């Protein structure tokens, strides 16, 4: 079987973010036939429809971003929660990838979401807002298990390595479910 290309989008622009640590941990726990690429969403110019009209050359970072996502067969979103929703950097990336109209890089792809917070809510609001957006973008999101990791700072040691325990076990199960889900949603012959 050939490798399945999975684009990973990390919703935190912060260096050393818990979302990036979580993304790295999930990549390490994944089945070997997933081929991951973390697609950088930091520094994308803000979406402006005026820059995406016929006859107008869109910003080069938009074109590169869309080009990096187009070949991905599946999507993995890792996000913190900012003010009970998704961070602006992630929402901006979703807008850029959804345009020009009819050329969305998201449509039809299977995906999974893991949200996290050092607080008690685990990014529940961000997770569900992201799900709502992805439904409109025709992204097929894994329903179970839902991952809202609260107190994420307690899941990693002081070097950033994922600790053994129930949190790690949940992430192993999550990646196994995601693997099966992607397999069921890929076009025949892939």
Description:
The chain has 190 residues and is of the alpha/beta class. It has a single domain, classed as Flavodoxin domain (Rossmann fold, 3-Layer(aba) Sandwich). It is built from 5 helices and 6 strands. Strands 1, 2, 3, 4, 5 and 6 form a 6-stranded parallel β-sheet that branches. Strand 1 (4-10), helix 1 (18-29) and strand 2 form a beta-alpha-beta unit. It is globular, with a radius of gyration of 16 Å.
- Percent of sequence in beta strands: 15-25%
As residue ranges, the low-confidence spans are: none
What proportion of the residues is helical, as a percent range?
A: 25-40%
Level-2 CATH architecture: 3-Layer(aba) Sandwich
Radius of gyration: 16 Å
Oligomerization state: single chain
Domain count: 1
CATH class equals Alpha Beta
Distance between the amino and carboxyl termini:
8 Å
Number of helices: 5
Structural class: alpha/beta
Major beta sheet, specifics?
6 strands, parallel
CATH superfamily: Flavodoxin domain
Count of β-strands: 6
Order of helices and strands: EHEHEHEHEEH
Shape: globular
